[in-house]
Amino acid sequence: MSVDDQMQEGNVAEPSKLAMMADHVRQLLGASVTHCELSKGQIVVRAESDQIAAVVKSLRDDRHAAFNQLSDLTAVDYPERPERFEMVYQFLSMTNNMRLRLLVPVGDGQAVASITDLYSSANWAEREVWDMFGIFFSGHPDLRRLLTDYGFEGHPLRKDFPLTGHVEVRYDDTLRRVVNEPVQLVQEFRDFDFLSPWEGMQVQIDAGDEKSSGKSGE
Length: 218
Known about the structure:
By secondary structure, the chain is of the alpha/beta class.
């Protein structure tokens, strides 16, 4: 759906109002942001990691901006960049019917300030980012893994995480409990013979050929 179609359905604010809000955000945040632009019907703001708490608080508490809902929080891994990760915060102003995306570069091993005291919805989202990417959130009230099991090694959404993983989880009938073991793939499951599923079909094809040749001989 294009931006024009979304505007007709009331899902996106008018471009003129968005431009005015973008100007307001630039004045509101000042030197706290490094970049602010309009992109695909929303405001995109870039800031440094040490400014996250101040930027988010200003966007939420300012009466005109009123970005009072955190709709999403995640991260992206760019191994080739000096600051490997990019935090992505997605905000919604229900009063103005506008969306704002905050992008923050984060280095490998660098801690990021938690915003759970500003938005309670950030709690599990930050736990998921910690679990999947290994980005630590300072000040988080309960930063534990969310999707993987206790004792899991590594962070699955990093680009350098092996596709087979490091451990496999299974239920042991003898021990009567779930166990974690190093991944062991049998060699026959690594090598695939694409012709094997057609072996049964080949017998029928050969039989059909013999029957056809018999009829032609008659």
